[in-house]
Fold this sequence. Notes:
alpha+beta; Glutaredoxin; disordered N terminus
Amino acid sequence: MPTNSTVVSKSPWYASMPTKVPLHLFAFLGLFFLLAGASEPASAANAERDDYFWQALTHTQYIAEGKQGPVVYLFLDPNCPYCHKLYDQLQEKVAKGKLRLRVVVVGFLSPSSHAKAAAILSAADPRAALAKNESGFAIRDGRPEGGIAPADPTLVAKEAGILHRNFAFLEGKESLLDSVPPGVVTVPLLVYRSQGQEHYLVNLPTEEQWQEILDAK
């Protein structure tokens, strides 16, 4: 499969990250490069299950943007640097009316992820809260962090059910991707339909993959 090394080299925004990066982040980045270019359709054996998964996604509490073009789901953790990068790329497509984005927020990547995800989902305007998180994304104390403040424990408890359900949709998707080790839950994850099949993309799309996404039906 093609790698996305050219995409990464065009956007060396992470080059300014401090040298003392937590070990968990090194593991995350290593997994990302291991998965570079991984985009796989559902197999025939899984087609019925994935059609059900696609339909089930329409009933999640996603954050919707855009009114034209094919539907694309993005699983996003508020503290995920590649989710942030992909979110920005998707915003350009949404602004041009090329796709409809549905963001499914999860919170598991780092200690503050769960509370930040709860803050986004519990906001009066979740779309604006998500935009605030992404516009304020930065490296703080050696860690990638979204710009929104974590929710207090009361709000976290209130949104716990939704966050658990969102994570349940994400968990297990590695079984559909030969390049993802069993039991590994990874973000970002894009889900879209093309030629009557569900496709799963676990990284920043290549130009060829972008074209497939934008042409999806």
